Amino acid sequence: MVISSIDLKNGHVVQLKNGKELVLQRDDADALIRQFNLYGEVAIIDLDAALGNVDAKGKTANTQILQKLLHQGNVRTGGGIRTVKRARELISLGAEKVIIGSAAWNPNPTESGSVLNEAFLNELTAAIGKDRIIISVDSINGKIAVKGWTETVDIPLVEGAKQAEKYCSELLFTCVEKEGCMQGTNMEYVKQLREAVSCRVVVAGGVSSVEEIAELEKLHCDVQLGMALYTNKVSLKDAFIACLNFEKSPLIPVIAQSMNGEVLMQGYANAQAFEKTFECGKLSFFSRERQTLWTKGETSGNFLEVIKLRVDCDRDSVLATVIPTGPSCHTGSWTCFGSDPQEKSSMGRLYNIIADRFANPKPGSYTATLDAKRVREKVEEEAEELCEADTKDEVIWEAADLIYFVNVLLYKEGVTWQDVYDELDRRHKEK
Question: Are the CB atoms for 108 and 114 separated by under 8 Å?
Answer without folding.
Answer: no
